[in-house]
Design brief:
By secondary structure, the chain is α/β, with parallel strands linked by helices. The chain has two domains: about 80 residues, Barwin-like endoglucanases, CATH 2.40.40.20; about 70 residues, Vcp-like ATPase, Chain A, domain 2 (Roll), CATH 3.10.330. It is built from five helices and 13 strands. The protein is globular.
Length: about 190
């Protein structure tokens, strides 16, 4: 599939913690992109995500909605453009993760919990992932994958390894209004 250029918008509050993108419905129809498909996203960096239903208000606008983590992974800001293409992710044989901001204790139960939470996640080596543990976000970086340099999907058979010490040089994206829920949705409810 050839590359499609789209303008980046912020995700809605309900999608702020989901590793998904929402694409202009016209673009989805014209390019045979379905809900559940995986798209490779190329900004200044390459990443990937699963596609969910585009929003009716985005029809005909040539846009993609991405949360702050996905924007960081693609190294793009709001209103910049990215290129996307539909891909078939390869099953990940192994994925090595390192915490971003703190040292953590890793035991077998924790490893199983994280593996369960990551099942069906789409990853590219170098991505940052956020997983909620006891309602608190834990941020990890994908430091190594096998195969490497591919869009991968984590399966039941994927071997997950978690380092206890944090990686250096990775910044967690700042909390944005979309992460806490923007005021527009609250106003609409009132």
């Amino acid at each position: 599939m050839s590359w499609i250029e789209l303008r980046v918008l912020e995700s809605k509050a309900r999608d702020a913690n989901r590793p998904i993108v929402r694409i202009d419905p016209d673009v989805m129809e014209q390019n045979n992109i379905m809900v559940g498909d995986v798209v490779e996203i190329a900004g200044r960096r390459r990443t990937a995500a699963k596609v969910w239903n585009g929003l009716p208000e985005d029809r005909g606008k040539g846009v993609i909605r991405m949360n702050s983590i996905l924007r960081k992974n693609a190294d793009v800001s709001l209103n910049e453009t990215v290129r996307i293409r539909k891909v078939d992710p390869k099953p990940a044989q192994s994925v090595k993760l390192a915490p971003v901001s703190m040292t953590i204790a890793v035991d077998q139960n924790f490893l199983q919990y994280i593996k369960q939470r990551l099942r069906d996640f789409v990853v590219v080596e170098g991505d940052v992932l956020q997983i909620y543990v006891l309602s608190q976000p834990l941020t990890f970086q994908v430091v190594q994958t096998r195969p490497s340099n591919s869009v991968l999907i984590i399966t039941e058979d994927t071997q997950i390894q978690i380092y206890e010490k944090p990686v250096s040089g990775v910044k967690i994206p700042p909390v944005t209004w979309e992460d806490i829920g923007d005021l527009e949705e609250a106003k609409q409810k009132i």
